[in-house]
């Protein structure tokens, strides 16, 4: 196949008309041409490399890799480096292999990393353990291009043997190691880096990014559904405010913000998590537009999702040069940045209207091993009229919580919610056959009746439920169990769910259907009084023990600062 | 040699600490590293690729290639694509080979283009003709990487046989063809491009650059001594003013200025001409700083003088990647951009204080073949008291002139200057043995006594002289002849010169000495009443026939719009 087109060259940082030839999925010719009156350019639009999301958990999109590919190509994405950390926590190697197999069935460049931290902590029950021998098994696979984000930085710093073994294996197999080290600094950061961990996607301010960059990390700027760090990093005024001590920048980079030459600081734009309702609107195409609005050069922005990740993970795509994989996108205009067509390996996969491949289903076993619950399973008992309880206070879409307390009344020995003060009940129901339940209290959701439940609850994905009363909480949890996983909203008026039968995390349906159902559930939660924009996402973070201050697991209420369990009822 | 350093990577558009190994002048290892507490970075500064000036006439610097290299490495320049068009006009192939030989004697990457347009016109006497067989002789040389700027665009458009033969030869030898086509547009531009001419450094406004870019030319943004187009092209407000009809931008690029995503429009930054007084202050290092002040991303600016020219001319330098020539520069800071050290092929050539190589001299034959002149040679005779004359009106540093007239008195049959109205005498003395002299009048120099003369007079470099009276004009010309070429200022009080014995264009002295002597001459011209900042440069353009409106050659006063000779004295 041979054609003429305007091409954006991310190596030379320019565009030009060119004759392009693709053979066997590879660019075999990219020759700049001149255009005279006789020559027409075949392609109506600008040809740019397909986008690469170098850090994403596909499970957060609640759809299979194949369905993810179908929606992603509409937005110009042609490759991802996916960390199957969520399914790894639920189904272990079996789940990861199901993801890889499903991914292989579609014409999309799926690369995976081996999840390094399963389970995330020992303070919760997960469905699987991925140990160093599993990691070696995974690293041997061609589809696995990296060791996934090393979230256990205390383990690295303190020399945990199993952690070090995993890192050693990645180095041995010559695969990059992704990092995850929010606010890690100075000597601790140095120890973390000694292990060859080379990326970080947790920087939320410029000084943090600067230190990590100077120490050799590649900075992934996150622009996803749950965390949007891009404004904090790219906004020059915000950056300047953050620099209390400009001398921290050192000689080489002093005044880079004042003189607006800070673009070399950043390496990749990643989404990390992209929820279905966001994913149907766009992906990295929107991130590029946002980056340019924030003052980043368009060429730099495009580099961050093309040639840079390609070079880091050795992907042989991400540039329209001879010898590279023919993954490209036609956009209408460099300003509007609408995706007209998407090509992978030289084949059209999105023609502007339709996606030209089918998504096979994942036929996963039921991962929910839990018996039906009754209302009393969710009761917090107290012998007295009133008690003081520890409360998780949460904020819309925020991973961080605040530890607070409340005085609650009892009724027949059962501690009651207090909708006037927005103190609701929260429980985590173990779903891996053990039967644990932890019941506690939460502030911030605003429900004045009913309950919401979900089997998406980071990182172990037990069933989490928040509600006004034990009865609807039991109904919501049972609905999730009946669905083999999913999200449910239950009240006198509602009994609706989004089934996520694949590991309790994903649906075989397409992104639009899943987003639509999620939208219905959002509206129902809202009708029940919930003030949060993202109640299910916020709820899912309430079980993420590694992020302070106070969280909940199936084993108990957890103080993330002291890193220990605490009592629900204060003595 | 192996060391650790912070490296600016122009392929990935980022920087990182790396271990760098250089063997036999080539980067054999560029490995990103992480930096912990134990590791020191060897290099104090940031390692960036050496700069490449992809279009320069070294003769304009009035020094030899070797001396040019000595000053250029102080500014971080490690390579140039030089068009020896000036010496070609004077000495032909012999001169070009002297340049190449001198260039080879120093550790600097000199690449040359074969001058395509010698002589520039048939309306002047030049020292040489470079025909298509000479071009073939030159294109066979490894040092010649391109066919030099094709200024004869009428010849291309009208299908001049000899011109087409030169272009065909360049295509045959697989060497890029540089363009020079100010304001060429639409069908004429299309015909020009059919010949495979692929660069243009003459764009002075954004619409012109846009059309040429869309048609496949690579845009060289000029930031030199005589022409500074950078402000016109990079300044966003200026760009917006220039766009009267935004629809001209077409669909793909509409709103690129409004949305500030216009950086892909530009390919290279070049100097074209760099005079000694400017060259001692800086070179492309200053252009990069200026570009960032004008809003161009620092990475884009650096790309324009590193990887982009390297890819276009197949130079295997311009990036710090494995397999590339180890040409690099250490700068103190990405903002201040001071050059600390310069390396070529892995060898230090500038250590921050001294240049570590010597510049051999060019032992050129005397190129001035002209007999001494007497005052009467410069007389314009008229039989009457007063006559009306055609006058060249010039403007400081401008190639363009305006045709005007003046009434002048005679004395003993000789037409006199009129210093009150700033009408001076101008003459061009042929210096290739033929003995032609043309005498005419010029407005704009402001001399109220004395004369200035120079053998630098584009493109044929005959001796040009401007003065108040015939006597000092003869003395000034004779001084230039005695010096075997150069620039002279002569009056009652002054008799000073800058000898340029190499083709009447260059000195074997170093840039500082030449700049110093030029500075003295500037001050003398100023003392004689000259108001121009650059009198010698402006004077040198007065013989450049291809730029309108009215110029002078050894053959006569020339109307550049009608493209014919006109009389000095109006009938």
Name the features.
571 residues; homodimer; 17 helices; nine-stranded mixed β-sheet
Describe this structure in words.
With 571 residues, chain A is of the alpha/beta class. Chain A has 17 helices and 27 strands. In chain A, the strands form four sheets. Chain A has a nine-stranded mixed sheet with strand order 18-17-16-20-19-22-21-23-24, sandwiched between helices. In chain A, helix 3 packs parallel to helix 5 (161-172). The longest helix of chain A is centred in the N-terminal third of the chain and has 20 residues, at 85-104.
* Percent range of helical residues of chain A: 25-40%
C-alpha termini separation of chain A = 75 Å
Overall radius of gyration of chain A: 24 Å
Write out the strand line-up for the largest beta sheet of chain A, numbering strands in chain order.
Answer: 18-17-16-20-19-22-21-23-24
Q: Low-confidence parts of chain A lasting 5 or more residues at pLDDT below 50?
A: none
Shape of chain A: globular
Biggest sheet architecture of chain A: 9 strands, mixed
Secondary structure category of chain A: alpha/beta
Q: Please, what is the oligomeric state?
A: homodimer
Query: What is the largest interface, and how many residues per chain?
Result: A-B, 63 and 63 residues
Strand content of chain A: 25-35%
**Extended strand count of chain A:** 27
Give the count of helical stretches of chain A. Answer: 17
- What's the overall average pLDDT of chain A, rounded? 95
């Amino acid at each position: 196949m041979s054609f003429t087109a305007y091409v954006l060259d991310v190596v030379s940082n320019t565009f030009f008309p060119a004759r392009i030839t693709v053979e066997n999925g590879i660019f075999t010719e990219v020759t700049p041409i001149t255009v005279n009156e006789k020559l027409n350019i075949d392609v109506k639009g600008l040809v740019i490399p397909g986008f690469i999301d170098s850090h994403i958990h596909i499970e957060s999109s609640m759809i299979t890799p194949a369905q993810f590919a179908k929606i992603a190509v509409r937005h110009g994405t042609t490759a991802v480096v996916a960390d199957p950390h969520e399914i790894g926590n639920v189904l272990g190697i079996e789940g990861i292999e199901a993801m890889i197999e499903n991914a292989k069935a579609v014409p999309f460049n799926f690369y995976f990393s081996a999840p390094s931290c399963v389970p995330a902590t020992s303070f919760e029950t997960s469905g699987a353990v991925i140990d160093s021998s599993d990691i070696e098994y995974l690293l041997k696979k061609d589809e696995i291009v990296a060791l996934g984000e090393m979230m256990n930085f205390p383990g690295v710093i303190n020399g945990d043997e199993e952690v070090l073994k995993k890192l050693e294996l990645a180095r041995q197999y010559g695969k990059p190691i992704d990092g995850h080290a929010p606010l890690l600094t100075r000597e601790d950061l140095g120890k973390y880096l000694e292990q060859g961990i080379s990326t970080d996607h947790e920087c939320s301010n410029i000084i943090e990014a600067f230190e990590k960059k100077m120490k050799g990390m590649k900075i992934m700027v996150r622009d996803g559904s749950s965390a949007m760090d891009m404004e904090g990093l790219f906004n020059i005024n915000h950056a300047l405010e953050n620099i209390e001590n400009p001398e921290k920048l050192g000689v080489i980079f002093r005044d880079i913000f004042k003189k607006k030459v800070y673009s070399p600081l950043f390496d990749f734009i990643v989404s990390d998590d992209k929820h279905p309702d966001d994913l149907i609107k766009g992906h990295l195409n929107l991130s590029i537009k946002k980056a340019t609005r924030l003052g980043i050069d368009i060429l730099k922005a495009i580099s961050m999702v093309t040639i840079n990740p390609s070079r880091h993970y050795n992907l042989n795509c991400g540039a329209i040069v001879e010898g590279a994989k023919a993954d490209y996108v036609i956009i209408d205009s460099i300003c509007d940045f609408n995706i007209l067509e998407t090509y992978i390996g030289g084949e059209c996969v999105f023609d502007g209207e339709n996606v030209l491949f089918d998504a096979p289903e994942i036929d996963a076993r039921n991962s929910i091993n839990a018996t039906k619950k009754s209302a009393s399973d969710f009761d917090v008992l107290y012998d007295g009229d009133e008690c003081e309880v520890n409360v998780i206070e949460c904020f819309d879409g925020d991973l961080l919580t605040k530890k607070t307390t409340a005085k609650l009344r009892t009724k027949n020995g059962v501690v009651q919610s207090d909708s006037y003060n927005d103190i609701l009940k929260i429980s985590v129901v173990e779903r891996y056959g053990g039967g644990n339940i932890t019941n506690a209290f939460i502030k911030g959701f605003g429900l004045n009746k009913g309950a919401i439940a979900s089997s998406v609850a980071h990182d172990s994905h037990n069933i989490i439920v928040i509600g006004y009363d034990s009865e609807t909480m039991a109904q919501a949890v049972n609905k999730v169990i009946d669905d083999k996983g999913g999200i449910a909203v239950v009240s006198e008026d509602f009994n609706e769910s989004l089934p996520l039968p694949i590991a309790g995390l994903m649906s075989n349906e397409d992104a639009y259907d899943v987003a639509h159902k999620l939208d219905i559930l959002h509206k129902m939660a809202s009708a029940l009084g919930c003030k949060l924009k993202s109640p299910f996402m916020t709820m899912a973070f309430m079980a993420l023990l590694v992020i302070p201050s106070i969280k909940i697991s199936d084993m108990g209420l957890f103080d993330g600062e002291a890193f220990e369990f605490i009592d629900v009822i204060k003595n």
